[in-house]
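Standup notes, structure subgroup. Blocker cleared on the BJW input:
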Amino acid sequence: MDIQNFIKPESNIVILTGAGISAESGIQTFRAADGLWENHCVEDVATPEAFIKNPALVQNFYNQRRSAILSANVKPNPAHYALAELEEKWGALNGGEALLITQNIDNLHERAGSRNVIHMHGELLKMFCTNCTLPMQNETAKKYDIQKDIDEHTLCSDCHESGTLRPDIVWFGEIPYHMDVCARALQNCDLFLSIGTSGNVYPAAGFVQEAMLAGALSAEINLEPSANASIFSTGFYGPASQKVPEFIQKLTAPPS
Ligand code: BJW
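Run returned:
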C-alpha cells in the first residue's frame, strides 16, 4: 500500500515509538534476549510493589539504565533524526499536525531535535519525591532533573527527607502520562504510525484501534510483526534506522 497517495492536505499524524527505535543507538529493548535483568524478570522490577519491597534493587535497575543512556556511545540514530525532520516540516508541507508519543524513557528524540514529545511512560533523567507527592499524583508531581544515581541517601531538596526520591517512570499498574492529549490526538488522526514496539503493553498497544475507529490509516515499522500486526493497514519490516527515513521520505515527497 502506498500511504503517500492516501495522505490528503491537512492530515494529522500520530507517531508512537517504542524501545525498538533506540535499539540501534545502543539501548537494549525492554523485552530483549531472555527478558531478564540480573535474573529478575524485567516486568517484576518495573512495579510500585517491587519498589516498596526492594527499593535498592529497583533503583539499581534504573541507575544502570540512566548511566547507559548518558554514555558517550549512545546517540540518536537516523530514525530519531527523520522524525525530528518530520515534525519540523509537516505543518508547512501539509498544513496538518504531527504528534510524537514515545513509550521510551530515554532522551534520544529530544537529542535528535524533536521539540514536542510526549513521554507517556516517564523519563529516566527526571525523578520525583514520594513524600512531597500525593498518592496517584505522579503526573503532576514536581519533577527534578537527575543524571546521577539515586539511593537511600539521596535527599529531597524540598522536604529534606532521604530515601523518598524515585525515578519518574510509569510502572505497571500506574496511569501513563498525558492520556487526555493522546486520546484527543488519536480521535483527530488521519495516519497512525507505530515504530519499534512489541504491542504487548496497554494502553499504548490499543492506540492503533482507537485511531482506526476514528477513521485513520495505520502502519507499523518494526523488525518483525508485532503482537497486534494484523490490525494495522500495512507494515514495513526491518531496522528502524533504515525503514523510518525511507517511509518519511516517501510521505513528505511532493506528489508525482
Ligand atoms: C526493532 C529494532 C530495530 C528491536 N528496528 N524495531 C491484561 C490485559 C491487558 C492489559 C493489562 C493486563 N494486565 C495488566 C494490564 C495493564 C498493563 C499491561 O499492559 N500489562 C501487559 C504486560 C499485559 N499496563 C499498565 O499497567 C499501564 N497502566 C495502565 O494500564 O493504567 C490503567 C489506565 C490506563 C489509561 C488510562 C487510565 C488508566 C502502565 C504501563 C507502564 C509500562 N511501563 C514500562 C516500564 C517502564 C519504563 C522502563 O523501565 O523502561 O514501559 S513496561 C515496558 O514496556 C516499558 C516500555 O515502554 C513498554 C513497551 O515496550 P516496547 O517499547 O514495546 O519494547 P519491547 O522490548 O517490548 O519491544 C521492542 C520491539 O522493537 C520488538 O517488537 C522488536 O522486534 C523491535 N525492535 N530492534 C525496529 N532495530
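Discussed briefly. DSSP finds nine helices and eleven strands in the chain.
Next: hand off to the docking folks.
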